[in-house]
Amino acid sequence: MHTDAIKHMFEKAMVTGMRLTSDSAPTTPCEPCLKVKQTRKPIQKTTDSRADQVLGRVFSDICGKILTRSHQGFEYFVTWVNDKSRRVSVHGLHHKSEIEEALKAFVSGAEVETGMAVHILHSDGGGEYTADNVQKYLRQKGIKHELTTPDTLQHNGVTECMNRTLLDKV
Is the dihedral of CA 87, 93, 97, 102 positive or negative? Predict the structure, then answer.
């Protein structure tokens, strides 16, 4: 129970046999209180399933709308992180709707550079990769699309961390 509720019960003699050892409230919540109030299980910080080849899995996310536009007028950027090598590619966007062309440019460039094909695209459920035309392109290329659990940024942590790092450096 909240400390104010306990004090109220004590002051109104609503509980017998209770005594308070201190008037001050604890400065931090107790661990059992935090565990009881959690609405979901803790999210695993590491994974056992890393890609075993370059472009086996590519993490991606769009960041923006950024408050300060770039010199080229970009208000968004998309990051692609290769799971095997952790190589990062970044592409500026004026609008989120430009993602299809950016994705096509990334995939073709990465495949030409490495001589390998993209197998899995891992992204959050933000909508940028769920448009019909983007899904059609992914199917045509034979790229499996992994979507994370909605409203769970931690499941797309690789690109979320990269976006944060890029914004901190900029």
Answer: negative
